[in-house]
Amino acid sequence: MTPGTTTTEAIDNTAQRTMHVGPADAAVSADPKMTIETDPLGSSIAVALFDPVAHVGGVLHFLLPRSPDEAVDNGQAMFADTGLPMLIERATALGATSENLVACAAGGAELLDEGRQGVADANRSMLEDVLRQNQVKIAAEDIGGTACRTLSLSISDGAAVVRNNGKERVLWQA
After folding, report:
1. Do 169 and 161 contact (CB within 8 A), yes or no?
2. Distance CA 41, CA 63 (A)
3. Residue 117's domain is classified under what CATH number?
4. Model pTM?
5. Phi-psi label, residue 166: left if phi above 0, alpha if psi -120 to 50, beta otherwise
6. Percent of the chain surpassing pLDDT 90
7. What residue numbers bound the domain in which 121 lies?
8. HEC letters along the chain
9. Which of 67, 135, 157, 166 has the fewest beta carbons closer than 10 A?
10. Which of 5-14, 103-112, 135-144, 165-174 is least confident?
């Protein structure tokens, strides 16, 4: 290419896009061509929120149930008690209403034989508590057991899909 020239590439506006959410991360979108998917979930839990009226959704991949008192703003997604309200706030900023939000959750596997209430159980309890406090109903879940899985959310139709051992299952769809 000659210096000072510009190339223009055609953008395919029909192409589906995927955004990955890693551990201690969250993403929200109103783009109907977007799918948000997690990295594999062990004892951590992913929560997909979707407003079927506004077609806004998001995914949080949290690792622990409760933040320490000195938690900083940039670490909110690591914890259920700070990450879930943050996800709700971000979704409403894009046009969702808390009354319409539907939650789907996956993960929370007990990967170690701990002989006591493990991280996965504590994560699940906090998930239920925080969603109840924010009046968000859990429409479907795939939590527990001993297998890792992933969760994806399609913004076009709200389909929350779990993948586990090469199999795919739709948990919920608008």
Report:
1. yes
2. 9
3. 3.30.1330.200
4. 0.88
5. left
6. 74
7. 17-172
8. CCCCCCCCCCCCCCCCEEEEECCCEEEEECCCCEEEEECCECCCEEEEEEECCCCEEEEEEECECCCCCCCCHHHHHHEHHHHHHHHHHHHHHCCCCCCCCEEEEEECCCCCCCCCCCHHHHHHHHHHHHHHHCCCEEEEEEECCCCCEEEEEECCCCCEEEEECCEEEEEECC
9. 166
10. 5-14
**Is the Cβ–Cβ distance between 57 and 50 less than 8 Å?**
yes
Inter-CA distances, 72 with 76, 90, 107, Å: 7, 17, 25
Residue matched to tokens 């076009």: 156
pLDDT band for position 12 (50/70/90)? low
Q: Count how many domains the chain has.
A: 1
Kindly give, in sequence order, each residue whose CB lies less than 8 Å from that of residue 169, ignoring residues fewer than 6 positions away: 142, 161, 162, 163
Token pair recorded at residue 72? 């900083």
Task: Name the residue among 172, 171, 158, 161 with its Cα closest to residue 53.
Answer: 158
Any domain includes 128? yes
- What pLDDT, on a 0 to 100 scale, did the predictor assign at position 38? 98
Q: Using one digit for the tens of pLDDT, what is the confidence trace for 52-71?
A: 999 999 999 999 999 987 55
